[in-house]
Design a protein that fits this description.
Pfam families: Transp_cyt_pur. By secondary structure, the chain is an all-alpha fold. The protein contains 23 helices and 2 strands. A two-stranded antiparallel sheet has the order 1-2. The longest helix has 31 residues, at 149-179. The protein is globular, with a radius of gyration of 23 Å. The two termini are 22 Å apart.
Length: 518
């Protein structure tokens, strides 16, 4: 029995035996005899026992055995995704349609509807793998990418999680900044949001789910109040026409896809303690509805809110001064001090809505860190979440005044690498692992996992193609430029990356399996 299996055995014993919780330094010989383990391993095991006594989850990327599963319902995946997206970051993203791409109401509406209908699929499908396999998302990728190439993907996604934590923290802080009428420094507002999220995210899986069961409903009520007060100010701005309109629709659509599919890289993480017997279609349906409804409704509110700038000097001035937070505050003006104070109360609640998203980023980045190196697995996830979350807060403080630009650049970049990655994951699952035919005991054994040559090659080709088709303020790919609308071109990155990876991966993987048997 190797070291990781001994660790899982020790965890399992401590989980079920109260007397072992204070010791937590046992192993098992090949004959089944329980013996003390080495002092170095014991140090980490004792630390994980302390983490458990604090009420936090001490498990990391190890597979969760059936004996540790609970009666957790797939409904928790609806509340998880609804809470993570019913927040000010989602509303701020919705403002990008009119603000950056010059879209009106109906073209923005169609983008938000159709691209969210499409973008919700990957994360919902990935969610079904958590209960079935008991493995985290970036561990499951080893069954396509292999043991070593998977480390590169884990590192990239670690940066992805830090970036998302940064974006979501700034979005929440914008509301606190507006409530303080600019007297509360933006850096302090970022720290308040970030530190609260850090504490919840560090404690792990069970506390995350408990928080998400409540958060979405409270925030939904607040957003309904904002929509109610703001309805009379929302104009129907007609859509433009011509090449600029086509480019704007495709670019906004790329952002929406990036916003949605980013959840797929961590989706399985939040179902690993659910019973394996749950029907995959239920897991998929609850996840899909939580993802789609939350982003569709809140992004539309962001679109409507941003359009107020086009026909109101007061809203334009509020936006220039304090961004999306200023726009929301302006909705409650003109009714007297009582309504204005009520509006500040609603904004105060909404400022903490992004915590539901940040805690998932912080929790999963700790798991990503353990994927990068075997040595890092020994360090408890809680500590990696602490370090990564701290880094995200520092980055958020540095970028606190540039939310819109950060969202535009970051969200599109996410779609560039994630689209070929997820395409490979799902082709592997549908074509080569039908019926969830994964040997889950092989998750940590390089000799029993694929070499990953087909996956990393196709992923690299798809990503490079996406870069050649991208259209950003800092880079316009030659293919995007050729499509039209100079000098910005038209972003068709994720579409071509999806098509190329779909064509290349099946034959490449078939050949790899034929030659290696893995």
């Amino acid at each position: 029995m190797d070291g990781n299996h001994r660790l899982e055995k020790a965890e399992h014993l401590a989980y079920n035996d109260p007397l072992a919780k204070d010791v937590f330094d046992v192993t098992e010989t090949s004959s089944g005899e329980v013996l003390p383990i080495s002092s170095s391993s014991s140090t980490w095991l004792r630390l994980r026992a302390i983490i458990r006594r604090l009420g936090a989850e001490e498990s990391g990327i190890e597979r969760i055995p059936e004996s540790m599963r609970t009666d957790q319902s797939p409904r928790d995946l609806f509340t998880l995704w609804a809470s993570a997206n019913v927040g000010t970051a989602t509303m701020a993203f919705g403002t990008l349609g009119p603000a950056l791409f010059g879209l009106g109401w109906w073209d923005s509406f169609c983008c938000v509807l159709f691209f969210n209908l499409l973008g919700s699929f990957p994360a919902a499908l990935m969610s079904t793998l958590g209960p079935k396999l008991g493995l985290r998302t970036l561990t499951i990728q080893r069954f396509a990418f292999g043991f070593w190439p998977a480390k590169l993907i884990a590192f990239i996604n670690l940066i992805n999680m830090i970036g998302w934590a940064m974006v979501n923290t700034i979005a929440g802080a914008a509301f606190l900044y507006n409530i303080g009428d600019g007297k509360l420094p933006a850096s302090i507002a970022v720290l308040i949001i970030g530190l609260v999220a850090l504490i919840v995210g560090m404690f792990g899986y069970h506390l995350v789910h408990q928080f998400e069961r409540v958060s979405w409903l409270v925030m939904l009520v607040c957003f309904c109040i904002v929509a109610g007060f703001g309805a009379k100010h929302f104009p129907d701005v007609p859509m433009p026409t011509g090449p600029t309109e086509i480019s704007g629709v495709l670019s906004f659509g790329t952002g929406i896809i990036g916003f949605q599919i980013s959840w797929a890289s961590i989706a399985a993480d939040y179902g690993v303690y659910m019973r394996e017997t749950h029907k995959p279609w239920k897991t998929f349906l609850y996840s899909y509805m939580g993802l789609f409804l939350s982003q569709f409704l809140v992004e539309l509110l962001g679109v409507a809110l941003m359009l107020t700038v086009t026909n109101s000097d007061a809203f334009a001035a509020a936006y220039d001064a304090r961004g999306v937070g200023g726009l929301t505050g302006q909705i409650f003006e003109g009714y007297g001090s009582g309504v204005r104070n009520f509006g500040k109360f609603i904004q105060a609640i909404l400022s903490f809505s992004t915590i539901a998203a940040v805690i998932t980023n912080i929790y999963s980045l700790g798991l990503n860190a353990q994927m990068i190196s075997d040595r890092l697995i020994k360090v408890p996830r809680l500590l990696w979440s602490l370090v990564g979350g701290g880094g995200a807060i520092i980055a958020a403080v540095a970028g606190r005044n540039h939310l819109q630009q950060v969202m535009e650049d970051f969200l599109n970049v996410v779609a560039y690498w994630l689209t070929p990655f997820l395409t490979i994951m799902f082709l592997e699952h549908i074509l080569f692992r039908r019926g969830y035919a994964y040997d889950v005991s092989a998750w940590e054994d390089p000799k029993r996992l694929p070499y990953g040559i087909a996956a990393i090659t196709c992923w690299s080709i798809g990503t490079v193609l996406a870069i050649l088709c991208m259209s950003q303020t800092w880079w316009v790919g030659p293919i995007a430029l050729k499509v039209g609308n100079p000098p910005y071109g038209t972003d068709i990155s994720w579409e071509l990356a999806l098509g190329a990876t779909t064509i290349l991966y099946p034959p490449a993987r078939w050949l790899e399996r034929k030659l290696t048997g893995l």
